[in-house]
Amino acid sequence: MRKLNLAGTIAGLAILVIFVWAAYIAGAASANTGSGYGTERLLAQIRGQQRPDLVNRALSMLKNDYFMPIAEDQEQELLYGAVSGMTNVLRQEPFNDDFSHFYDPELYKDLEAQTTGEYAGVGILMGSTADGLYPEIVTVFPDTPAAEVGIEPDDIITEVAGEDTFGMILPEVATRIKGEPGSSVDLTLYRPAEGEYYELTVERRDVQFSSVSDVEMLDDGTGFIKISSFAEETGADFRAAVEQLLESGMQALVIDLRNNSGGLYPAAIEVANCFVAEGLIVEVMMRDDEQQPVYADPDAVKYDLPLVVLINANSASASEILVGALQDHGLAKVVGERSYGKGVIQAVNPMEAEWVEKVNDEGLSYREEQVKSALALTIGKYYTPLHNDIHGVGIEPDVWHELANRLAEEPDLQALESQIREQTDELRQLRAQFYRYIRDNDTTRDLAIEIAGQLGRGMEVANVPQLELPQEEHAPLASVPPAGQSPSIEADSDSAGGE
């Protein structure tokens, strides 16, 4: 089991979470790629029109000359890899696009689960640690298998089914955690707050979750609604929550978008339409400077309430569309930290489909075409109503309240940070002494010389198996930040893919 670097784990969560991989896609409006589907069709175009020999020759060489036989299903994986390789190039100069992505069948299932709110898994949302090396749990849905076994937000998943998650991308982690209802998955979790590892077996079940959660009516007439992501039902669920709170006497509303890395673009527009009476909600700039403004729906029911919106560094994409609209129209006071700054929109283009046999409520069978894979492409850049470009910049809150503010205001937090720094310095010094001892006392070299002497005298030398250190003994050595680095503490992140 690989141990964790506390400097990375306490630094908060990176935003490259499943919701920035998938329909976070602040505009996951599905778009057909033409008359029919097909990775095969796309590859045929590439082979026949652009570089007629390159893909054919590479595939032929792999099939004929690779030292292991390549089965038909594996050939399909090679085609998927070719399409993925194209989108990987977009991450480089001059594009610098981290959001265009190919969804093979497994990843596309995850995308559907995240946008519909239904899947077979354990009931969590994941993000990434600040160094991007481990998946971290950001939400545990109530009444789910994860909640029943005691999984908590901020737990870090270090192993899934005995496999190390170090460096594993979040969609892959999600795929490994999900499975058939009734089956189970073994998870190893690290809980930074306790410095302990937990090994849990969690049952997989059909899970339904709402992106609109934590609907509360507080004593002073203030309503509170958290939106964890923007999915198909977010707009309707949010409006229902507002109506429920109004019936309870709500006089003001707090909308919590912290750690919400986005989702479906239309869902954010639906929520904005609850408050923006008229004018622009967002403006999208497409290719060749084509403008696509989105205006408030005058026929939608509006709520005239004092609004406060909570954001942090992991509020991104569709969240920023909503925040930008409410802030620019003067409808909300924004509190927290600067948002992430994802000001581009993706469209999900179906690439393959298959016919699936289904049975309706009357017992009659029918065939339905289902998408197998898709290509999410960045199709435009968006601007807030006041034409602010937030991409790579983020949205500034009206009232800043981040770690620096909390440290200045909360003595208990100051004391905890001081303890962390003291213990980290002490652990760093101990680790330096540990490795200095290893360097100055080369017993491995001494052993090799001794064995050579024994062999030279004609003696038999027995093999010695590997000896693993117990976890609790080895953990402190791997948990100390490298020399020259100081620990940092930042806010958590939420957002991600449901598993």
Class by SSE composition? alpha+beta
Oligomer: single chain
Q: Could you tell me the mean pLDDT?
A: 82
Can you say what the CATH homologous superfamily of the domain at 36-92 and 210-355 and 379-401 is? 2-enoyl-CoA Hydratase, Chain A, domain 1
Describe the structure.
The radius of gyration is 26 Å and the shape is globular. The chain has helices at residues 6-9, 18-21, 39-50, 54-65, 72-89, 105-116, 145-148, 170-177, 234-247, 265-272, 318-328, 403-409, 411-440, 443-456, 471-478; strands at residues 13-14, 29-30, 101-103, 118-121, 124-129, 135-140, 156-160, 163-164, 184-191, 196-203, 205-208, 212-217, 222-227, 252-256, 280-286, 291-295, 307-311, 332-336, 344-359, 365-383, 399-400. The chain is built from 15 helices and 21 strands. Helices cover 33% and strands 25% of the residues. With 499 residues, it is an alpha+beta fold. The strands form 5 sheets. Strands 2, 3, 15, 16, 19 and 20 form a 6-stranded mixed beta sheet that branches. Helix 9 (234-247) runs parallel beside helix 10. The protein has a domain at 36-92 and 210-355 and 379-401: 2-enoyl-CoA Hydratase, Chain A, domain 1 (Alpha-Beta Complex).
